[in-house]
Amino acid sequence: MSVSMKDLDPAFRGSGQKDGLEVWRIENFKPVPIPASSHGKFFMGDSYIILKTTALKNGSLRHDIHYWIGKDTTQDEAGTAAILTVELDAALGGRAVQYREIQGNETEKFLSYFRPCIMPQPGGVASGFKHVEVNAQDHETHLYVCHGKHVVHVKEVPFARSSLNHDDIFILDTESKIFQFNGSNSSIQERAKALEVVQYIKDTFHEGKCDIASVEDGRMMADAEAGEFWGFFGGFAPLPRRAPAEGNEKHEETAFKLLCFDQGKLDPVNYESLAHELLETNKCYFLDCGAELYVWMGRNTSLQERKGASEAAEKLLSDSNRTKTHIIKMIEGFETVTFKSKFKEWPQTPDLKLSSEDGRGKVAALLKRQGLNVKGLMKAAPAKEEPQSYIDCTGNLQVWRVNDKDKALLSSSDQSKFYTGDCYIFQYMYPGDDKEECLIGTWFGKKSVEEDRITAVSLASKMVEFTKFQAVQARLYEGKEPVQFFVIFQSLQVFKGGLSSGYKKFIAESGIDDDSYSEEGLALFRVQGSGPENMQAIQVEPVASSLNSSYCYILHDGNTVFTWTGNLTTALDQELMERQLDVIKPNTQSRSQKEGSETDQFWSLLGGKSEYSSQKMVRELESDPHLFSCILSKGNLKVKEIHHFTQDDLMTEDVFILDCHTSIFVWVGQQVDVKVRLQALDVGEKFVVLDFLMENLARETPIFTVTEGSEPPFFTRFFSWDSAKSLMHGNSYQRKLAIVKGGGAPALDKPKRRTPVYSGRSTTQDKSQRSRSMSFSPERVRVRGRSPAFTALAANFESSSNRNLSTPPPVVKKLYPKSLTPDSSNTSSKSSAITALAGSLDRRTQTPTPESVKDVSVSEKAKQEEDAKDSAATMANRVESLTINEDAKENEPEDDEGLPIYPYERLKTTAADPVTEIDVTRRETYLSSAEFKEKFGMTKEAFNKLPKWKQNRLKIALQLF
C-alpha cells in the first residue's frame, strides 16, 4: 500500500515516535492536538483520536489507535474520526490495531490509559461549550454508577432513589462529602476500584478537601453515615429489584459471520469451519461476533479500500442499531490474539517484514526530509545482555535428590551435581528487603521418570505449605532454567544418567544401556555461563559434532583429560572452563587443545573429525509482561488480561498470572482460600498449556508460585512496588478505604529496607596468577554470607586441613563483612564463638524474625558426620531450618526447677548413650548451672531472657536442638 505523506494531515506528522499517549480532537473535520494536561478530559459532543505508543523490549514500537465518539457528537464528526484513524495507521506503517470506542461502552484497554476513570463532561467544541471549573459555592450534587473489577466504567445517572439498586456501586458527590454506596450484590473488588473514583472526584472537583463516607446496602439509620446518605433521598426505603437497563443489547451466541468487502460490496462467505485460508491478502473481511466486529485488511489492499471498509463497518452497525458493538480493525500479519483465537487454527508465521513501499523505513525517510525527528520511529533493537537475576546470592542452600517416594539430603559437595535422569528439590534461604526470604523448587532432568516428578512436586508442596505459603515455589525443567536458578547454585554440573531407584528401574525395564556418568569413562562437557557466580558444565555426547566454536569443553577418558577452546571464546569462557575442571577432574593434569590445532588422540576419543556449529546458543528473551486474572472452576481455567497493570490490580481475594514468556508467575492473594492456594502450581501449568497469548509457550516453561506479602525481587521488578500495601490487613476494599480516608498511602512501621546484593559479573583473574595446584576444592564447605558471629562460629567447625584452594572461588559480595575468617580463627574455641554469636544476636536490630522452613524428614538431619567441615554445613543448614511454630512459643514460660542433671555429652542429639524420658525440646535445662555457663557463655537466667529464635540458634550450635 503506497502512503503519500503529502496527503497526511499535518497534525499527525511526527506522531508515534516515542512511548506515550497522544490525543487529537476533531474540530471542523480536522484533528487538533490536545495537550497532555488535558488527556482524559472528554466532552460528550466531540470525537477524539487516541494513539498509544508502546516501546517493546525488542526495541520496536507498537501502536494502538482508538477513536472515541461522544454520545452527542454528530455523525459526520464520528465518520471523520474513523477515516482519519485509517490514515494515521497508514502513516505509521499500517501495523496498528484500531478500536472504535463509544461513550459508556469503552473497552478496558482504552480505559486503562486514563486510570482510574474517565468522566465525560457536557458540551463540545461545536456548541462553543467552555468548561468551567467547579467551586464549592456552586457545587451541584451528582450521582454516578460504577462497575468493573479491573477498570471502572463510570456513568452519571439521575439523582433519584430509583437509580439505586442492589447490584452496582454508586457514588453520591455532594458539596461537603462524597458517599460510596455499595450494593449488597456487588463484589469486594468492584468496591475497591470504585474507591479510586471517589479519590479522583475528591482531588478533581473538591481540591482534595472533603470527607469520605462508605455506606453498605441494608444498613439502617443506626449508622450515622448511612442515615446522612439516605437523608439526601428523603429517608430510607427498601430498594426494588433491578430492572433491565435501557439499551442493553443481546448478541447472538451462534456461529460467527464472515463477510467479504471487495470493491465496495459486502458479501457473506460460506464455510464449514472458520479457517485462516478463507482470508485473501487483496481483500478486506468482516468477522461479526456480536459484541465485536473485526475488520481484517489484507496487506495488498489500497488505502482507499481500507477507508471504504471502515465506512462500511460503521454503516453496518448503524443500520442494525448496534450502538454498543466494538469495531476492531487490524492489518494482515498484526492480528490480535482474540481475533486469531476465533479461528480453528492459526498458523505460526515469522514476523511479517514490511515492504519498501509501506514499511517504517520509507515513512521515517519522508519524515526526516520534512525535518522531523525520527529517532524514536527507527529505534533499533537493544544490545543483548545477560539478564539480571534480581536475587541475593549470599543465602543458604539445601538440595535433596528424590528417591523411592522420599528425598535424600545431599552433602554440600554434591548439591550442585545433578543427573539428567533424576529429580531434585532445593531450598534457598536468602536475605530479602525486610526479612529472610525462602525459595523452594523442583528440578526435573530431561530423562527423569514421571513417578519421581510427581513425588518431587508433592514433597516440595508440603514444604511450602509448612511455611504457611510464605515461601516461593518453583517448577523447573532441565534446559529451561531461569537465571535465578544458576545464580543460586553458582557452579553447576549436569551429568548423564541417574542415581535414583526410579531411573534405574526405568533403565532395567526398558532394556536400554545405562549411560550414567563415570569418572573412569569417556565424557565430554560443554562449559557455559556469564561469570564465576553463574557457570555450568553440561555433559553432552562425546562426538565431534557436539563441539561449538563459541564454547570451551572438557573431555576426559579416565585420567586422560583434554580441554578444548573454541576460536570464538573469550578469556572469561576459558576462566570458567578452568574452574569447572577443578570440580570435574581435580588434581589431574590436562592437555590444552585449541580449535584448529587438535591432536590425533583428541579426535580419536571423539570418534574422528566431523562438522560442528559455530553459533552461540541464544538465550530465550524475556518478552513484555502480561497480567491476567484467573479463575479455576471444575478443572477449567478462565483468564482475562489486565491492560497497563499496576500493583493495585493485584487484589488480595484473587489469583493472578504474570506471563513473561520465559517464566510464569502465579500470584495468590492472602484472602484466597487454602484449597485454591494448593492448586497454584496447577493453575500455572494449565495456563502454559492454554497458551492464551499464542506465543508457543514451552511445556517446560519455569513456573513460580508467589503468595502476597512474600513477593521476591524478581517478581516485584515488574511493578512500581510498595511493600507496605501487602502488609495491610483486611480485604482489598477495607485496605483501599483506609488509604482513601487516611488521605494517602498507609504509614506502616517496618524495618529499614536494606539494599539487596544482586549477582554481578566477577572480575576474571589473570591467568598468569593462577595455579592448578591451588584450585577451588569441590569438597570445601560453601558457607554463604552471614553475620560476623555466625561466620566465626562456622569457622570453628571447619577443618583447616580441607583447604585445597586452586582457582579462586567465585567472587561474591557478602551481605555482612566477615570479622573472623576461617584462616584467621583456627585457635578460637567453640565456646568463645558461641559467646560471640550470642553477643551479636543481642546487638542486632529488632527486626521481624525470619520464618524459615522446617525439614519434615528428621531422620536426614540425625545423621551427622564427625568431620568438622560437614558439621559446619549441618549447623548452617539447621540454623536456617527453624520452624515457624517456635517463634509462636517465644512468650511461653519455662519452669526447669526440680529437673535432674545430666552431662552435656549425653544430652547431645548425636550422643552415643542418649538420655531417655526427657523433654527433648528443652535439653539445655538438664545441664548443671556450671556446665550451662561453660557451654553457652551465660547463665540460665540470661539465656531464658533471650527471644526463642536466639535460643534455638545457640542450641543448634551445641547440638542440643
Please tell me about this protein's structure.
It holds the Pfam family Gelsolin. It is found in: Cytoplasm, Cytoskeleton. Residues 760-776 have a biased composition (Polar residues). This is HP domain-containing protein. The chain is of the alpha+beta class. It has 26 helices and 32 strands. Helix 1 (75-91) packs antiparallel against helix 5 (303-319), helix 3 (188-205) packs parallel to helix 17 and helix 18 (788-797) packs antiparallel against helix 19 (830-843).
Tell me the major beta sheet: 10 strands, mixed
Count the beta strands: 32
Strand order of the largest sheet: 2-1-3-4-5-15-14-13-11-12
**Oligomeric status:** single chain
Distance between the termini: 77 Å
Please count the helical segments: 26
Radius of gyration: 34 Å
Please identify the structural class as seen in this structure: alpha+beta
Mean pLDDT: 80
Proportion of residues in helical segments: 10-25%
Strand content: 15-25%
Give the overall form: globular
Uncertain ranges = 127-136, 246-252, 351-384, 747-895
Please give a handful of descriptors for the protein shown.
961 residues; alpha+beta; ten-stranded mixed sheet; 26 helices; 32 strands; 21% strand; globular
Give the gist of this structure.
Helices cover 25% and strands 21% of the residues. It has 961 residues and is α+β, with helices and mostly antiparallel strands. GO terms for molecular function: actin filament binding.
What is the strand and helix layout of this fold?
Elements: E1 20-27, E2 30-34, E3 47-55, E4 61-69, H1 75-91, E5 97-102, H2 108-111, E6 142-147, E7 153-157, E8 169-173, E9 177-182, H3 188-205, E10 211-216, H4 224-231, E11 257-262, E12 265-268, E13 284-288, E14 292-297, H5 303-319, E15 326-331, H6 337-340, H7 360-369, E16 396-403, E17 406-409, E18 417-419, E19 423-431, E20 436-444, H8 450-466, E21 472-477, H9 483-489, E22 491-495, H10 501-510, E23 522-531, E24 534-540, E25 552-557, E26 560-565, H11 571-584, E27 590-594, H12 600-605, E28 626-633, E29 636-642, E30 655-659, E31 664-668, H13 674-677, H14 680-690, E32 703-707, H15 713-716, H16 723-726, H17 732-742, H18 788-797, H19 830-843, H20 858-862, H21 868-879, H22 884-888, H23 904-907, H24 929-936, H25 940-944, H26 948-957
Parallel strand pairs: 4-5, 9-10, 14-15, 18-22, 20-21, 22-24, 26-27, 31-32
Antiparallel strand pairs: 1-2, 1-3, 3-4, 5-15, 6-7, 6-8, 8-9, 11-12, 11-13, 13-14, 16-17, 16-19, 19-20, 21-32, 23-24, 23-25, 25-26, 28-29, 28-30, 30-31
Helix pairs in contact: 1-5, 3-17, 18-19, 18-21
GO cellular component, one term: actin filament bundle
Domain HP: 896-961
Biased composition (Low complexity): 819-835
